[in-house]
Amino acid sequence: MTKDPGYFKPVITYPTVMTPTVDQKTTVALATNQVDANSKAVPTLTVDRGVVGSKTTLKVTGLSTTGSHNIVWSTVVGNRWNCTTGTCWVYSPIALGTVDVSNGSLEKEVTIPDHLGGWHVIQVMSGDKIEAQIPFYVKQSIVEFKDKNGKVISQGTATFVNSTAPDVVAKGQSGVGQTKFKEGEEFTISVKGVGWTQLDNTLAVTYDNAHIGYACGFNSNGYVVVRIRATGGPGTHIINLRPLLYTIQPSMANQHFDMVPFLSWDSDYPGLALGYQIPMYTFAITVTK
Q: pTM higher than 0.85 for the full model?
């Protein structure tokens, strides 16, 4: 009834940044024997949010400790699909390097790990004590597929590789970047920086505006590859990824918003008040005979 507009580059739309209504952040150590209660250090970041692989510079003043300090990325590993034992995840910090304190201050550029998205904390440690810590928000992003010369040939979409070889599985069985697929052919969509809380560990998937399932990024450390079959006949077809509330494990009785796309994701999603910036993705593919 209307002309097919054809393929277009994927769009990732973030909600408006809102000031969190609470100060607490996930992975922050509070009132534990690991925190140096006597520390008066003041940490700052040149940038407090970004995608995996981005950089920020940490500056700390007011340190009373001396010598070499460890810079640590506070994060977790685990999943929710088999956490019936009561232990769904454990803290698993990632080292970001070391830096020496000079006159009570330090400065260090750090690279955000290719790991879980959402709220994390950069911590400055002297031995086993946290002398300073500051939150950083990891935004989700689309994986780019490049040719051997480094030229981007597709964003997010790629062929599906039907192999269980370890190097293929590590990439979620995604293959060569591509935007055109034969009808019935399987393809993949890849994103990074998906989080680990019940607010941001899952994305709902719709194909031509029909809800077909969801993808979770916790067990894969923020790296999500969605496997889909090209259907609907020749022409342009639209795939959306949207936030949803993960409510399967731990079980929540009488859940009224169970594992479906949250259509008002940019205006009244519960995570907005906590500073979460979970986007909506719009991908297009061309299906051929």
A: yes
Q: Given this model, what pLDDT does residue 35 score?
A: 93
DSSP string, 191-216: EE---SSTTTSEEEEEETTEEEEEEE
d(CA 247, CA 194): 16
User: Confidence class of residue 7 from pLDDT cuts 50, 70 and 90?
Assistant: very high
**Can 11-17+141-192+197-288 and 42-138 be said to share one CATH topology?**
yes
Report phi then psi at 175, rounded to 5. -120, -120
Residue range 42-138 forms a domain whose CATH class is: mainly beta
Query: pLDDT (tens digit, 9 = 90+) per residue, 86-99?
Result: 677 888 999 999 99
Overall size of the chain counted in residues: 289
Task: Name the one residue in this structure whose structure tokens are 């990632």.
Answer: 94
State how far the Cα of 158 lies from the Cα of 231, in Å rounded to an integer. Answer: 16
Distance CA 207, CA 210 (A): 5
Residue 85 has pLDDT above 70, yes or no: no
Provide the CATH number for the domain formed by 11-17+141-192+197-288 in this structure: 2.60.40.10
Phi/psi of residue 264, each to 5°?
Answer: -95, 40
CA 167 – CA 149 distance, rounded (Å)? 21
